[in-house]
Amino acid sequence: xxxxxxxxxxxxxxxxxxxxxxxxxxxxxxxxxxxxxxxxxxxxxxxxxxxxxxxxxxxxxxxxxxxxxxxxxxxxxxxxxxxxxxxxxxxxxxxxxxxxxxxxxxxxxxxxxxxxxxxxxxxxxxxxxxxxxxxxxxxxxxxxxxxxxxxxxxxxxxxxxxxxxxxxxxxxxxxxxxxxxxxxxxxxxxxxxxxxxxxxxxxxxxxxxxxxxxxxxxxxxxxxxxxxxxxxxxxxxxxxxxxxxxxxxxxxxxxxxxxxxxxxxxxxxxxxxxxxxxxxxxxxxxxxxxxxxxxxxxxxxxxxxxxxxxxxxxxxxxxxxxxxxxxxxxxxxxxxxxxxxxxxxxxxxxxxxxxxxxxxxxxxxxxxxxxxxxxxxxxxxxxxxxxxxxxxxxxxxxxxxxxxxxxxxxxxxxxxxxxxxxxxxxxxxxxxxxxxxxxxxxxxxxxxxxxxxxxxxxxxxxxxxxxxxxxxxxxxxxxxxxxxxxxxxxxxxxxxxxxxxxxxxxxxxxxxxxxxxxxxxxxxxxxxxxxxxxxxxxxxxxxxxxxxxxxxxxxxxxxxxxxxxxxx
Length: 568
Ligand code: GLC
Known about the structure:
There is one protein chain. By secondary structure, the chain is an alpha/beta fold. Helices cover 26% and strands 15% of the residues. Strands 11-10-9-5-2-1-13-12 form an eight-stranded parallel β-sheet. It has a five-stranded antiparallel β-sheet with strand order 14-15-16-20-18. Strands 6-8-7 form a three-stranded antiparallel β-sheet, with no helix packed on it. The longest helix has 17 residues, at 207-223. Residues 1-24 have low confidence and may be disordered.
């Protein structure tokens, strides 16, 4: 595309979407937005190859408008060998042929904007694919060259450099270093990869890397995206000298509990986002940055959303909280103190493409470290009915909270984690790098069911699906739930409509007492919300029930149920 065409299309886009500070789409839309995560390969497949794509998304936008969300976030669709489902990018400014073309992206973006839906895209700055042009040049170049300086190449330790430069482990299991063969055919330097060996880490102390990412940001901003979800936003900068570090055995796989992990949350990372913020501010239309930063507390996470840095950060402490009233009250309090304390909105999230779906996770009886997943031999399998009941109650609680909320595709259908995926169908690098010791994340990535009777439940016209879909999913298909009173889809629609109508996202939370230790009870505007996390029923106070995650009868809120009551 010529730059004249870019300018023309950008103008057309600006005329239709941003700067529309209306009631429908307020200024600083990201403060209150409900953002729906699309995992493109599992959302909708138009081409019939069994992998979802951009035309598939475009064709389903009416269904998302009907659901009532404000924005979508797309996991990576850029060019990639797909070793980590697209989080290994080989060209940041092109669409992978699996998902379509740049023209398909533009069409999807225009169609979303035409429906008042904002679009944020994933940006993966910590590492590229090993097939990225820069990494291929680095492999061909000599130690000490400008090409190698874009990544983290180091000489090995021990005699002839046979040992890795330090003891760091990959998040996906195994060592975080791989040795290369030099031009002469001899083993040579090592490169760092915090994730798979196909995902070499960039060296962010190198100005050339910074400049390249400014270009990439502008490329997508010029096309009209509303912002970016920034992958591994707490990585990027590594401590001087790369000191040895092994995470404690019970640490979450990304972030850990430790104060100073030499590759997470290093101070210098904030300069990168201050720089990016100035770029976003060159553009009209309230573009936003959202940090994927796995840190143990809301206070630590809030450092990424100080007023001159990012706009939002995923609230992973909230996601990691169990279905327990006291723990939930604590994390909500901490979030509402920490994020607004730096001028940012709190965000809320229960599921994404890296964790066990909350319709299963909230009923797990065994420990489940992030990214490990569950499979046929996992201990403490969830009871599906219990999981779904809690998931519906947890979502009803989350969507009543002030701030912005993230949903993950398929949760509006009540999809559980898929446990029985055969080993030879699994694709997550975690599964391979740990020799099957960790199941990884495939169970939350299974293509979603749209219709009950069509091949692949309407996911793909050919019936192909890159991960097998369970037989029980026919009854969870969207067509089985639309217009059906009490279905999970209709519950989500009601919650989203009431949240919007009553401006709960922009509201204020006020705790209320008197419902016992197992209740999470608060007022937000004229809505009273009571979530019962215990096993005994709670008496329903006066008011009109405007939403309930399960049947409410005889003036009682049953176990694992959330109710919204209007006082008007
Ligand atoms: C993020 C992504 C995850 C990916 C990893 C490496 O955590 O959400 O899916 O594997 O980064 O890019």
